[in-house]
Write a structure and sequence with these properties.
- The protein has 408 residues and is mainly α.
- The chain has a single domain (1-408), classed as Cytochrome c-like domain (Cytochrome Bc1 Complex, Chain D, domain 2, Orthogonal Bundle), CATH 1.10.760.
- It has helices at 44-47, 51-60, 73-76, 139-144, 158-166, 171-178, 186-203, 213-218, 226-236, 330-339, 389-399; strands at 30-31, 71-72, 93-94, 100-101, 119-120, 126-127, 265-266, 307-308.
- A two-stranded antiparallel sheet has the order 1-2. The protein has a two-stranded antiparallel ribbon with strand order 3-4.
- Strand 5 (119-120) and strand 6 (126-127) form a beta hairpin.
- Helix 2 packs across helix 7 and helix 9 (226-236) crosses helix 11.
- The N and C termini lie far apart (53 Å).
C-alpha cells in the first residue's frame, strides 16, 4: 500500500491561483500516437527546424520506444488538446501491457519554453520546474523520465530505450547528427535523445503559437464580444475572479504574449478523485511539492498539497482539470473556485454525520496549507460567492478565447 504523501512512481505533475483553471507539465507517454516509422509533419515549419529538432519530432511520435510498443509522447500530449491529455479517463493508461494507471492528469506541455528551473523567489514563493511538482529542471530532464516510468513507457533501463532507438527507422539520421558511435554509450545516446526532444519543443512554433482570439484581440485583429470582454474584466479584477493574480494576462519580458501563468505553486484544496486507483487507499495522499518524487522538499510540510500553476492557454480544450482530474467541465472548475468554501457540501465527501469534509485530499493535519486568503477563496459558508452564475458564464466565455488556432 502507498504510504502517506507518496507517489508510487514518478508521474506527471499542480495548481495555484485565485481563480484559475488547472490543467495542466510533463512529457508523459501513454497509449496511441504514431508508430516507429511515424514521419514528421510535412508542412513548411518542419523544414525550418534544426536537425536535432527534426529528430525530436520523430522521437515524440514514436510508439516503438515504449515497452508496450503502443505509447509515444504525443499519446498523452495531443496537439488537438493543446498538447495535453486526450483521454476520457482521469489519468492515462500505461505500463508494459497498457494496464497501469498513474496518479496525475497528463498536463499541457505548450508554452513551457518560457519556464525556468525550480527555485524559490525572494519572498520564499516556489516557482519554476517541470511536471506538476517541478522536479525536473529543464525540458531535457523532463523528457527523460517517462521512458523509464513503470506506469508510463515502462522501459526497465536506459539501455533498453537506446536499443529501441538504435532499431528505429531514423537511427542512421541519429548517428549522422550525433556521431557514428553514439549508440555504443547508452547514457550519451539517451541524453542526446532527450536533447532532441527539448530542441523540438523549443523550436517548433506549434508549442508556442500565440494564435488565439485573445492574441488577435491584443494585436487589433479581432473584437471580443460583450460577454468575452466582461469575462476578461472579471478575470483581472482583484475583487472578483482575481485570476490574474497567478495567471497574468499581461506580456512578460521573455515572451511575445501573455503566458497566463506565473509558474508558481498553490494549494487549492481540490477534492479527492476516487476514480484514481491509488486514492482507494485512505493512507495515500499526493503531496505535490512535498511528495515522494520531491525528496529534497520532504521536510517542507508547509508545501504539502501545492501544485504548479499551469498556463490557461488552451484550457477550454482540456478534458480534465487539476492535477488529479477532479473536474471535467470548465464552468464547474470556476464554480468550485468561487463556491469552494461558501458551499463545501457541493464538492467534498461527508463524514459519518453527513457533514462535508473540506480539503479531503489532504490529511487533516495539513489542511491548514490550503489557500484561504486570496480572492475568491476568502469566503465562509453562507457568504455570497465572488461570482454569480452569469459571471461564471462570462468568465468561461473569455477563457475560450485563449484556445490556439483562431481564424477570423
Amino acid at each position: 500500500m502507498a504510504s502517506s504523501f507518496s507517489v508510487p512512481f514518478p508521474d506527471q505533475r499542480p495548481a495555484r491561483l485565485a481563480l484559475g483553471l488547472i490543467l495542466a507539465l510533463g512529457l508523459a507517454a501513454c497509449g496511441g500516437g504514431g508508430g516507429a516509422g511515424s514521419s514528421p509533419r510535412s508542412d513548411a515549419s518542419a523544414s525550418e527546424l534544426s536537425a536535432a529538432a527534426q529528430l525530436g519530432e520523430r522521437i515524440f511520435r514514436d510508439t516503438s520506444l515504449s515497452a508496450s510498443g503502443r505509447q509515444a509522447c504525443i499519446s498523452c500530449h495531443d496537439p488537438a488538446t493543446g498538447h495535453a491529455s486526450p483521454f476520457d479517463t482521469p489519468t492515462a493508461p500505461g505500463g508494459p501491457a497498457m494496464a497501469d494507471q498513474g496518479n496525475r492528469n497528463p498536463p499541457s506541455i505548450r508554452y513551457l519554453r518560457f519556464n525556468t528551473a525550480f527555485h524559490f523567489e525572494s519572498d520564499g514563493t516556489p516557482a519554476g520546474g517541470f511536471f506538476w511538482d517541478g522536479r525536473a529542471a529543464s525540458l531535457r530532464e523532463q523528457a527523460r523520465m517517462p521512458f523509464l516510468n513503470p506506469v508510463e513507457m515502462a522501459n526497465p533501463d536506459i539501455a533498453a530505450v537506446v536499443a529501441k532507438l538504435a532499431a528505429a527507422p531514423y537511427a542512421a539520421e541519429f548517428r549522422q547528427v550525433f556521431g557514428d558511435a553514439i549508440f555504443s554509450t547508452p547514457e550519451d545516446a539517451f541524453d542526446r535523445m532527450a536533447f532532441a526532444l527539448e530542441r523540438y519543443q523549443l523550436e517548433d512554433p506549434e508549442f508556442a503559437p500565440f494564435s488565439s482570439k485573445y492574441d488577435a484581440f491584443v494585436a487589433g485583429r479581432a473584437t471580443l464580444t460583450a460577454q468575452e470582454l466582461n469575462g476578461l474584466a472579471l478575470f483581472n479584477r482583484g475583487d472578483k475572479g482575481n485570476c490574474a493574480a497567478c495567471h497574468s494576462s499581461t506580456k512578460p519580458a521573455n515572451a511575445p504574449g501573455a503566458l497566463f501563468t506565473d509558474f508558481t505553486y498553490d494549494n487549492l484544496g481540490v477534492p479527492r478523485n476516487m476514480a484514481i486507483a491509488a486514492n482507494a487507499d485512505p493512507a495515500f495522499f499526493d503531496g505535490g511539492l512535498c511528495g515522494a518524487t520531491r525528496t529534497d522538499l520532504s521536510a517542507r510540510t508547509d508545501l504539502c498539497g501545492a501544485f504548479k500553476v499551469p498556463s490557461l492557454r488552451n484550457v477550454a480544450l482540456r478534458k480534465h482539470f487539476f492535477h488529479n482530474s477532479a473536474f471535467g467541465s470548465l464552468e464547474d472548475v470556476i464554480r468550485f473556485y468561487v463556491r469552494r468554501d461558501t458551499d463545501p457540501q457541493l464538492w467534498y465527501a461527508t463524514d459519518i454525520l453527513g457533514n462535508p469534509v473540506p480539503y479531503d485530499d489532504l490529511p487533516d493535519t495539513l489542511r491548514g496549507n490550503v489557500n484561504i486568503t486570496e480572492v475568491p477563496y476568502n469566503r465562509r459558508p453562507g457568504d455570497t460567492p465572488a461570482l454569480d452564475d452569469a459571471e461564471i458564464a462570462d468568465l468561461a466565455a473569455f477563457l475560450r478565447t485563449l484556445s490556439d488556432g483562431y481564424t477570423p
